[in-house]
Amino acid sequence: MPLQPIKFYQTGTFTVGNRLLDESQRTVQANMRRTNSLNSGHRACQGCGEALGARYALDAAMQATKNRLIAANATGCLEVFSTPYPETSWQIPWMHSLFGNAASVATGIAAALKVKGKQDVRVIAQGGDGGTTDIGFACLSGMFERNDDVLYICYDNEAYMNTGVQRSSATPPAARTATTPAAGAHPGNSFGTGKNVPLIAMAHRIPFVATASVANLHDLEAKVNKAMTIHGARYIHIHVPCPLGWGSHPSDTLKVARLAVESGLFPLFEAEHGEITASLRLRKKAPVEAYLKLQRRFSHLFGEKPDRDTIAMIQAIADRNIEKFGLESP
Amino acid sequence: MKKPFAITLDPGSSLANHTGSWRTERPVYVDRLPPCNHACPAGEDIQGWLYHAEGGDYRRAWEALVKHNPFPAIMGRVCYHPCEDACNRGKLDEAVGIHAVERFLGDLAIRRGWLPGKPAGPGAKRVLVVGSGPSGLSCAYHLRLMGHGVVIVDSAKAAGGMMRYGIPKYRLPRDVLDAEISRIESMGVEFRLNSRIDDIMAAMAGFDAAFLAVGAHLARRTDIPAGDASRILDAVCLLHDMEDGPPPMLGRRVVVYGGGNTALDVARTAKRLGALESLIVYRRTKEQMPAHESELNEALQEGILFKWLSTVKAMDEGGVTVEKMVLDETGFPQPTGEFEKMEADSLVLALGQESELGLLKNVPDLEIENGTVKVNSSMMTSHPGIFAGGDMVPSDRTVTSAVGHGKKAAKNIDAWLRNETYIAPEKHEIAGFDKMNTWYYSDAPRTVQPELDIARRGSTFDEVVGGLTGKNALFEARRCLSCGNCFECDNCFGVCPDNAVIKLGPGLRFAFDYDYCKGCGLCAAECPCGAIKMVPESI
After folding, report:
1. Which chain A residues contact residue B503 at CB under 8 A?
2. Which domain holds residue B472?
3. How close is the nearest chain A Cα to the Cα of B445, in Å?
4. Among A253, A319, A231, which residue's Cα sits nearest to residue A51?
5. Fold of A34-324
6. pLDDT confidence bin for B500, thresholds 50/70/90
7. ipTM of this model?
8. Is the CB of B475 less than 8 angstroms away from the CB of A47?
9. Contact predicate A296/A246, CB 8 Å
10. Which has the least CB within 10 A, A141, A275, A292, B315?
């Protein structure tokens, strides 16, 4: 029996760190001196995926820029739970203006830094899916189109969670929200609606677009690092489960995020100047049912009489992603 | 400070907001009992020594190992490794090759001449150990480490008991056996070989306690009518002669009667002594055979023949007569009246062993049941101060169980000598597969020990199973999932959305900051090895 080359240590590189790994191979999150850009005491719900994703992304960006970073934030959970006047959890220069203008505020900051000759200070704009795909979309598209030197990060929890779980253009089909109730002939959000902002960002042919997940920290940090090596407009779309809005158990946040990736529903890829350059292979392929079943927003699909047709339609979306993004290629 | 329009408060940190008050459950770090440790009859802390081996610190790994078991090199070869049957990794790909790493560490220690920590000088108490098999040696080793004076008495020429006189060389090379025994001798244990104890009560003079481990060296017989020229031997004597006497003459065709590991040892030994045909006759089926599966497979590979569902009825010059059996509804073999004659030059009986308990004749109120000595949970016989273990007490009669008996007896003898009672620490909850988050472990095949070429094996007593090299031993050790015990992967530190996990630094593990922990349970769910438990908050 041929020996497999020693590729992974005891737990491979899937864990946050590992005592047996060289420091350089561990994540930023494994470092005792990480920035904790989003500090303790914030008011996010138990097991909040967005709070986790924001710290992951900003700690990585802080390390990549040697702590020379300013962030502009859209209205949304991330702003509300982190900064109830007069307290703040942010340990970086941080600015909030309106729901829809985070991209424009960041453009302004970048322009001001340019005028002041502070080219080493980098700018991030961030928001939830509501502030990005709906309300801030025009500002975002403008920032892309002008190729402003900003990294925009969207934390996608697939609805307006802060105001009570209303549908956004990132809400997946069949999901129950306050505005798409599980009632009638086609319960939940309609099929054939919504938009895919990473693909729209690619259509602007900006230097860098990527999707990431809180369930894959190594991949997420690598993408943030790469984005910080590039100047011009960049976009990272991070999938962050919301225990409250999705009706999943707070301790299942990463499991749910992992199943979204492994089912093919949330493909992880990156693109440069409009072309896909890499995608992450599925490690343990899972049926969409495994993902859906953990969330009460899809509970109307199950129960005594499972809605097989709808589940099959969702599976078809996952299968299409797997094919389109080459998630199973050798 | 002058504030801007409509601003009345200074900016503050959210650290003022103690979100720990939201919690209904709190995470706590636990050390659960790994299934391998739970299954080990010798009570080894397997996960514990593998942890050091994973880091390449073989010396510390070996030291952690010999805290519980003085014979890693022997154990890595002859133990049937129930730890590997219990290994959680077996449910992922294949169990960790624990015995292979153990053997690697044992061999390395012999090569480098490592010794366990220097024991304290002998105290006033002296313990007599009767029998130098695995149980007696293990007890002597632990008692010596606790600072007691120990004398081992054995009637054989050399120490080792069944490890020397029962296990063939191709499974346990004698230089390995000698090296691990001499280490115990070098610790100051006195050996009196070639000396037989006929009356334990008389022999106890000058000793404060005794540990009896005389083993089971008497072959169980069955009445087989035999002609004058027929050659019938018993397995125990045959294996004993392999060590101490001239090699037994078995002839070209050898029939072995029995279905245990000893029967396989004899059949494989016969083949190595030049028998053309070595046949095992067993009255039940292959599935019912008590022999261990790995040994059965090795025997089959070597060309040992089997005759299932048969009993030996008689032997004469021409060979043996066997009767065919059938299983009844209860799975018990019943005679059919059909007979068959088979050519054989010799017949070896491997029908089990019994203990020679003559030395106990003058011990008052001793309880003996089915030929074994009854002991209580402290391994003490019904006579105070006389303890017993190994094959002479009810057990599964393996080397590993014997080593475990020795350790357990040593702890109890030590307490008894101080007029105390040994109380074993409470066992942790078992780290079952359901407690693990196996997503984080990558797949890797088990490193298979190179096996001696079958053709070569047939005629020599060279060791059959080879050892690991330094490189693949490290790889194999790192396949350990560290079930139930933190191995500092930083997952809890990373996945907490509230930064409520404090990393204490290398080797110091982690702590929770309950001021901010909201009790979401993500750390427990994402802990790969199940070392975090959620417990309800008291109200």
Report:
1. 32
2. 39-115+437-477
3. 7
4. A253
5. Rossmann fold (3.40.50)
6. very high
7. 0.94
8. no
9. yes
10. A275
